[in-house]
Every structure is written in C-alpha cells, then in structure tokens.
Design brief:
There is one protein chain. The chain has 206 residues and is an alpha/beta fold. S-adenosylmethionine (SAM) binds next to α1.
C-alpha cells in the first residue's frame, strides 16, 4: 500500500468520494441495466455476491425476479447506502463492512458481481483471490470497471489493476494473477463513461 494512511483511513476516504454518485444523471438506470445482465448469468436458486453494492440497484432485478429465491449477499462499507440496499432488496443479506475483510466459504458462490467498485479498493487483488476461492468451479465473476481509467484520489487502484490503458492485456493479466481466466469482455459506456465488462471463471488449483 504506497501510502502512510491506515486501511481504515483509506476506506473512509473512499466512502466520502463515492457519496455523490447517485446524483450522476442516468446512474440509477445504468445500474439497473447491469443488474438485468447479472440476472441472466445466475442459475436458479443461485448465490450471488455484490462487492461495493452501493444502494443495491444491481440486485433489484434479481430481487424482483422472485422465484425460486436467490441468495443475495451485498457488501457495502457505507452505512447509509447499505441501509438503502436493504430496503430495496427485502430478503438480501447486506453486510455493512470493508470488502477487504470479507471471507466467504469456499465453493459457495455462483456469481460474484461488482460494478464500479474495484477501482476504489486499495488492494483489489486480495478481494479477487478471496472471490476466486469462494466461487464454485463453474461459477462466474461479472466485473465492471471504468476503462480506460485514470488514477485520482477516488480511483486509487486502476494503475494496480492495469485499467489505465485502452489495451486490456495488463488488466487480464492482473485478473489471471489473482485467480481468474477471462471468458469474454465488452468495452462499453454508461452514465459514468467508458467501462469494461468482463466475465471470468475462477482458476481452481489442487
Ligand atoms: C461508485 S459506487 C458503485 C455502487 C454500485 N455498485 C452501483 O453500481 O450502483 C462504489 C461503491 O463501493 C463502495 N466501496 C468503496 N470501497 C469499499 C470497500 N472497501 N468495501 C466495500 N464497499 C466499498 C462505496 O461506498 C460505493 O458505494
């Protein structure tokens, strides 16, 4: 961690930086649209985790889908947003915590999802390695990050992740180094500008 700040200070800073995203025009619609894309990836009755779930918009299409019930686990460090996510997704388990400290049982998750959150993590590789173990062997990671991105005090990890260039080679290598093989990707743009959507599978060893 190339800073003199503690993990708690780094995370608190990100909470402040992310507090205004719902004022971005089109943000809500874009988040819901990604949630519908997520729904299409989830098997019946599957378990889904959303890292940095914010106000829970990504889960909304899954909650609305009803039967058979899915097991939804949202992880959000900002208390106010976690509370909104709970209200929006009755039945989902919304954990108000730092994703860096999350531990999930191995081989328990069908789809790990994250939209516009990994660029805020000071150690995105650590969270990816945890998710790689938590996913079932046929599970999937659906990851959306700004692309190409630029480092600022909000997007602290895009240099580490290799998302600063228009060429995804370094990003895919970062994913491989942290437990994932990319199966498909799409460069697109939504309310927050250019982004990349990646579907990857966990590398299972031993
Ligand atoms: C730009 S918002 C995206 C929210 C949501 N994924 C969506 O698409 O609407 C990023 C979210 O990540 C959360 N976040 C940032 N760092 C986090 C951390 N270390 N652990 C958990 N959540 C975090 C922020 O509080 C914020 O709600």
């Amino acid at each position: 961690m190339p800073t003199d700040k503690t993990p708690e200070e780094l995370v608190a800073h990100q909470v402040r930086m992310c507090s205004l995203e719902d004022r971005v025009a089109g943000w809500r619609e874009a988040a819901l649209a990604c949630g519908r894309q997520l729904l299409a990836l989830v098997p019946e009755g599957g378990t889904v985790v959303d890292i940095g779930c914010g106000a829970g918009l990504g889960f909304k299409p899954l909650s609305d889908a009803g039967h058979p019930p899915l097991r939804l686990i949202g992880v959000e460090v900002a208390a106010e947003k976690a509370a909104i996510a709970r209200e929006l997704n009755a039945g989902a388990l919304i954990l108000q915590m730092d994703a860096h400290t999350l531990e999930l049982p191995h081989n328990s998750v069908d789809v790990a999802y994250s939209r516009h959150a990994f660029e805020h993590l000071y150690d995105p590789g650590k969270v990816l390695r945890m998710l790689s173990k938590a996913l079932k062997p046929d599970g999937k990671l659906f990851l959306i990050v700004p692309f190409p991105d630029h480092v600022d005090e909000c997007h602290v990890s895009c240099e580490i992740m290799g998302t600063t260039s228009d060429d995804p080679t370094r990003f895919f290598q970062f994913l491989a180094d942290n437990g994932f093989d990319v199966q498909s990707h799409e460069k697109t743009s939504d309310a927050l500008g250019a982004e990349i959507r990646v579907i990857a599978t966990p590398r299972k060893t031993g």
